[in-house]
Design a protein that fits this description.
441 residues; mainly beta; 18-stranded antiparallel β-barrel; 2 helices; 22 strands; globular
């Protein structure tokens, strides 16, 4: 708590001292009503996971319809501006969804336990937040959707994941963005309970700096009480080439120290006697994961090569200890994130934009990732995994349906016998999402 207070105070003091040196967002405020914005995203979603080497009945298939709301007032005029925001969603399932899963549809509970095959027919969630702004510094308290490398809302399902807490963001120095916050509730995408993930306390801080149009760097930290301490770094450089081509170099990495009470799924070495059923190692574990990639772009073509590696005595784990499965800002992340204990992985990805074929808005991405050298509890041989990924997305470019999009993706995932039962297991997955955004005001 003291760390968050000090960071927030430092940001606000900085804003007061140097606000006259740079253009102020608050000085341009038009008013509470005048700057208000509202939108609703109508989403139809379907995820099917066909498990290949498990007993019948363990496949998961989910489909639903949602409306996701985002309403924001403007800021009042003055040195300090005030405003409010509302985020929320309303959904209903399509079909019986008796084999639902995939963090898509909430299940009803009995005595605190989820009942297999018993899903909600319809559900609604959401919350409000209040905000204040001085110069180019904003402080927001309440229900929020986060996009931080160490604490990110899962937006890859029907509805977003919500956090409740306070977040301060400052852009007083040209090119520099500072962040600090504290969150005490975490509602994952398929949860009705506003603190379904039972988050005790997550303190975040970080900075992003744009050195030039070509070079960017960032650092973020997270302290999730009694769960983990995590640090993230990233550097990105874009090199311009002839004929409007470019090469982009990217480095990213996480260092995580897991508390003995954290949930991990790939522990080896010393673990608690009940680890197999609880996933709690019972002893502190450490993971380092880093990745480097190079991307060549020319015209409609985009080719990326990436290498990713884990070290430490546990694999990278991002869900259940702080958030819901999206804080993995690394290149080798599709159905699998290639984050096993000691795992190394390599990827080749190719993307094509069909704009030159008269099909602006249509994009295709294909990738293959191979992972090896995975340490698996109770096994002496190395685990291996691979994934073949394809996605086609079309976004309407103009007209009454402008920005509506249809995304179809497929993953074919396989693991060797050593790793088959330790992680996802051999799976063929389909995801289909139709998004129709509507601007209300």
């Amino acid at each position: 708590m003291q760390k968050t207070q000090k960071l927030t105070l430092a940001i606000l003091i900085q804003a007061a001292l140097i606000s006259t040196a740079y253009a102020s967002e608050q000085s341009e405020a038009k008013g509470f009503i005048e700057d208000a914005e509202g939108s609703v995203l109508f989403r139809t979603g379907f995820i099917d996971r066909d498990k290949k080497n498990v007993p019948a009945g363990t496949d998961t298939r989910s489909s639903a319809q949602s409306a996701i709301f985002d309403l924001e007032s403007g800021y009042t005029k003055g040195v300090v501006g005030f405003g409010v925001g509302i985020v929320g969603d309303a959904s209903f399932k399509l079909g019986d969804n008796k084999h639902a899963g995939n963090q898509m549809i909430p299940r009803e509970t009995l005595n605190g336990k989820k009942q297999a095959g018993d899903t909600y027919d319809h559900w609604a969630r959401g919350g409000a937040n209040v905000k204040a702004r001085i110069s180019n510094t904003e402080v927001r308290y309440g229900t929020q959707v986060l996009d931080l490398p160490v604490l990110a809302s899962n937006t890859g399902r029907m509805v977003p994941e919500y956090f409740e807490g306070v977040l301060a963001t400052s852009r007083e120095i040209n090119g520099l963005e500072l962040t600090a916050g504290k969150f005490t509730k975490n509602q994952m995408s398929e949860q009705i309970n506003t603190d379904g993930n039972r988050l005790d306390q997550a303190v975040v801080w970080g900075a992003k700096y744009k050195f030039s149009d070509a070079l960017n760097a960032s650092y973020f930290g997270l302290d999730s009480k009694n769960k983990l301490d995590r640090h993230y770094v990233n550097a990105n450089y874009k090199q311009a080439l002839a004929n409007d081509s470019s090469l982009t170099y990217d480095f990213s990495g996480y260092h995580t120290k897991f508390d003995k009470n954290a949930t991990t799924y790939s522990s080896t070495g010393e673990v608690a006697p009940d680890y197999a059923t609880t996933g709690v190692a019972g002893v502190e574990k450490t993971n380092n994961i880093w990745a480097i990639s190079g991307t060549y772009n020319t015209g409609a073509h985009n080719l990326m090569l990436a290498y990713q590696q884990n070290t430490g005595n546990v694999g990278y784990d991002y869900g259940q200890n702080a958030d819901g499965f999206q804080s993995v800002y690394l290149p080798n992340s599709y159905l699998s994130d290639f984050v096993g204990n000691h795992e190394k992985s390599a990827q080749v990805q190719y993307s094509y934009n069909f704009k030159n074929q008269g099909l602006a808005g249509l994009n295709w991405t294909t990738a293959y990732v191979y992972g090896w050298d995975i340490n698996v509890a109770g096994q002496t041989n190395e685990g291996k995994e691979n994934e073949f990924f394809n996605q086609v997305k079309y976004t309407v470019q103009s007209g009454f349906a402008k920005d509506a999009s249809l995304r179809v993706r497929n993953s074919i995932y396989r693991a060797n016998n050593v790793y088959e039962n330790a992680y996802i297991g051999d799976t063929n997955e389909w995801r289909v999402f139709l998004d129709i955004p509507v601007k209300l005001f």
